[in-house]
Specification:
By secondary structure, this protein is of the alpha+beta class. Strand 1 and strand 2 form a beta hairpin. The termini are far apart.
């Protein structure tokens, strides 16, 4: 029996069938749906959706130092796309696995950076790759101070994590992000939102060095 989606463009869509075609670290599900175009024509379409669960991410900012704390994390796609060592600069975060997004953001920030924060401001919930993935990102922002340092951070070895903890000025962090062959979207979005909302000082008129004389 088909599933009728009743709002917006979804009122012209009926999901007639779904099946799991692959299940491992992610679940890949295939959907068959009937889509009615605006001219009244109906088409049978097939779509794949990758499911892994929602994720919470936090950008930590120290007003006293005008610094942020990021992590250097190994990502296989980054390695395949030419990032040195496969390392991406990222704001700390992790999967919800059914838990509260704010709670997860605080926990992951402590595990990955070593700073314990208890209050984070929710900025946005967004899809980063809605044409393929059902993952939603819950983006948070929070202040930290030197007194909040409780460990060396770096993530959990039991979960295969060995992250580099990087505290740097806002301007330097922005430049380093832009120097990467591919930029981590969620981290850059957090930066730009925090700047737009006046939560951080800068990045200002940062001159980003170009390679090969560009």
């Amino acid at each position: 029996m088909g599933v009728q989606v009743s709002e917006g463009a979804g009122s012209r869509v009926e999901i007639s069938h779904s099946e799991v075609v692959h299940e491992d670290w992610v679940t890949l599900r295939k959907y068959t749906l009937d889509y009615q175009f605006r001219n009244g024509e109906k088409h049978r379409l097939e779509r794949l959706v990758a499911g892994r669960g929602d994720r919470a991410v936090a950008l930590l900012y120290c007003r006293l130092r005008n610094t942020v704390v990021l992590t250097g994390q190994f990502r296989l796609p980054a390695l395949l796309d030419g990032a040195p060592g496969g390392t991406l600069l990222e704001a700390p975060g992790g999967l919800l696995d059914g838990a509260d997004a704010h709670e997860v953001a605080c926990r992951e920030a402590e595990e990955e950076t070593g700073y314990r924060v208890s209050r984070l401001r929710h900025l946005l919930t967004t899809y980063m790759n809605p044409q393929l993935s059902d993952e939603r990102l819950h983006l948070f922002f929070g202040d930290y101070s030197p007194a909040d340092k409780v460990s060396d951070g770096g993530g959990l070895a039991s979960e295969g994590e060995e992250n580099e903890v990087l505290e740097m000025s806002v301007d330097v962090a922005f430049v380093e992000l832009m120097r990467q062959p591919v930029v981590d979207g969620k981290t850059m979005l957090l930066f730009l939102m925090a700047q737009r909302l006046g939560l951080i000082t800068g990045p200002g008129d940062v001159i980003i060095p170009k390679e090969n004389g560009e």
